[in-house]
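ESCALATION

Customer reports they have been waiting on this structure for their group meeting. Please prioritize. Original submission:
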Amino acid sequence: MNSNPEYSVDDGNKALQALLWYLDEGMCFLRDQGHSPRTGSIADKELASFPRSETLHTAYYQGTILIVAASDHLHSFIRLLDEPVQTIAPYTCIRVVIETSAIASWILEPEISAFDRVMRSLAFRIEGLKQQLNFARATNDNDTFNQIQARIDKVVDDYHRMGFKKLVNRKGKVIGVGQQLPSFTQLVETIFDEEPTYRLLSGMVHAHPWVLSHFGFRVEETDSRKYLTQNMKAFHVIFLSLVASKAFIAPIRKKAGLYWIRC
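Update from on-call: job pushed to the front of the queue and completed.
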């Protein structure tokens, strides 16, 4: 990391230390609270009143495993900024942290009804099944393709009988049930109000020169020519650490409100 007129290498390292503290404390909090919702909490009441409690358990599981995924990428981000510092890969880690934290927060939101929680969980689940379908198609695995399609059809029918509306496209083909999963851009903007940051991170992930040259390199100049050399500014480390801590802690707070605060 190179310093700039405002921030030093030491400032960047302090930001990483603070991020690591957030990460460790957040995961310790989840472990200490246990896996079961507290008596009288929102989750406890949802499980007692919703007709198919296993669908809520699925939603809680999805949100929790997404938090774990975010923590894994945060650890990678911090390690990538140890010497020898990587200047491009850290942005990929933070984009994944924002994505997974946004979906987890969306599913674990304590202010929505149990019905809406199951609907959001279902949208995420069906999107995953569709990705499996695409993978089977790409590998020409017809047997697996047919099995997954049958699974999707069964999930749609099962949840339709529970009162969730079937979703159809313009051609009348069933494409889901309840609601479709919003795009990552929509989720990040809705949950974190960070669309510009997300688009910047996406540019880094897809290696667009317009963003790589600004955030992964610096211009060096000699008497005869200019050239780019890899560079990670301390300011960028601080900025990424702040964005990451904001995103990572959000679904933990959502789960706390859902699981462990009596209402």
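Sent to customer with the following note: The chain has a mean pLDDT of 91.
Escalation resolved.
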